[in-house]
Amino acid sequence: KITLFWFRRDLRLEDNMGLYYAFENEENVLPLFIFDREILDKLEDKTDARVQFIHEQIRHLHQSLQKYDSSILVRHGKPPEVFKSLLSEYEVKNVYTNRDYEPYARARDQEVEGLLKEKKIDFFDFKDQVIYEKDEITTEKGDFYKVFTPYSKVWLKKFKASKIETVRLDGRKTGFLQTKPLPLPTLKDIGFQESDIEIPPMDINKPLIRKYDKTRNFPYLEGTSRLGIHLRFGTISIRKLALEAAQLNDTYLNELIWREFYMMILYHNPPVVDKAFKTQYDRIPWQNNEKEFDRWCEGKTGFPLVDAGMRELNQTGYMHNRVRMVTASFLTKHLLIDWRWGEAYFAKKLLDYELSSNNGGWQWAAGTGTDAQPYFRIFNPESQLEKFDKEKKYVKRWVPEFGTEDYPKPMVDHKTARERALKVYKEAVGN
Ligand code: FAD
């Protein structure tokens, strides 16, 4: 009999909790990865760099497991169907995995667990992608937090008071099923092609993180870690990173807490996926002008910081956090376009796309989210430019025609747009 360890967003061998426990508790562990058609078939861009990234990581795992005289079983399909067919091919004792908190993932796991149960096969899941999950950080009454600052205080206090453990497989061969390398589908086999977008390396750049609080707000600097995609797919361990961060820079650690805060919010409020966290904000009559939306997507609004950000996103799959805030605020407040449109566009383009953080970031910018930030604080894209890219280094990098006649005039007047937003928001939700 074998134990399956099902990889999802934890694509590494070391400090992988579910894998470690499978390895410790069981024999004949066979790692499994499913290229999930439920997700992949919905991606319009068949050169999506994220799929290529995942494929590459699976290839690395395939290679690394050869050192253990083992391999990884790779399938392409919908997980419940894949499991049904696996159960007819293998004698499965149990299935180990790491927990995933997104609504789709929870429903998927419940379905798989149900069909395993019918065959008396156990499904064990572990906390791996966060330091604190679900109900671990609550108010004294046991409620989940709705505001970041008190959540982060409790998080930090708990983190400082506990010993965070990391785990290692130690190169022992006995845990894994001994097998010849199993076949690995190519990218083409799963319906995708190579992309020319570059993925930032998995590197904890200590000197950079040490001065993160001073550099992180300036988009022309390489002042942030670019680890988003690695946190998303688990090619880095959050425990390892948080332990480093605690030594290096408190501001950086605080950003990792934001990540967990939004994951917790999504876990307790799955409707935020397509509804305002503060539900009265769903009354806002968005203008949703498609031509204006297209200009925003293309980076042709005539507001240099907005345009630079959108072009950086389109060309590289990345946008600096400061500029994410400015572009999102511009779309929702200056153009009165539904935050869900912007969120969906970012979801298509961002290499580090994470449902919880993207949703949280968009709802924050639109003023519909958890934070106490009132809607009447509207970013002025021009003063943001003066503050964070005074010499226009970032703008010139992404908008080569900036300053020439070819560069478009501002598509709206800041003052007029601001007043319109205030009026529309106020009429919809009051003060
Ligand atoms: P660093 O600044 O080096 O931070 C390290 C890590 O901390 C990040 O990789 C990320 O995991 C986490 N982090 C940092 N800032 C935040 C934050 N504000 N909220 C949650 N986690 C944070 N982040 C995503 O990971 N995925 C998204 O899809 C995403 N969409 C966003 C959309 C909008 C409108 C806004 C305003 C922010 C969004 N963010 C998102 C948060 C933030 O912009 C990115 O995490 C960050 O820019 C990624 O770059 P980095 O890896 O260099 O981050």
UniProtKB/TrEMBL annotation:
Transmembrane regions: none
Keywords for the protein's UniProt record, in alphabetical order: Chromophore, FAD, Flavoprotein, Lyase
UniProt superkingdom: Bacteria
Keyword Lyase: yes
Residues the entry annotates as binding FAD: Y212, Y252, E255, L256, I257, W258, R259, E260, F261, Y262
GO molecular function: deoxyribodipyrimidine photo-lyase activity; DNA binding; FAD binding
Gene3D superfamilies according to UniProt: 1.25.40.80, DNA Cyclobutane Dipyrimidine Photolyase, subunit A, domain 3, HUPs
InterPro entries (UniProt xref): Crypto/Photolyase_FAD-like_sf (IPR036134), Crypto/Photolyase_N_sf (IPR036155), Cryptochr/Photolyase_FAD-bd (IPR005101), Cryptochrome/DNA_photolyase_1 (IPR002081), DNA_photolyase_1_CS_C (IPR018394), DNA_photolyase_N (IPR006050), Rossmann-like_a/b/a_fold (IPR014729)
Cofactors that this protein relies on: FAD; (6R)-5,10-methylene-5,6,7,8-tetrahydrofolate
Keyword Metal-binding: no
Coiled coil: none
Ranges of residues in domain Photolyase/cryptochrome alpha/beta: 1-131
Free-text remark on how the cofactor is bound: Binds 1 FAD per subunit.
PROSITE patterns given in the database record: DNA_PHOTOLYASES_1_1, DNA_PHOTOLYASES_1_2, PHR_CRY_ALPHA_BETA
Site (Electron transfer via tryptophanyl radical): W286, W339, W362
UniProt GO BP: nucleobase-containing compound metabolic process; response to light stimulus; response to stress
UniProt family annotation: Belongs to the DNA photolyase family.
Protein name (record): Deoxyribodipyrimidine photo-lyase
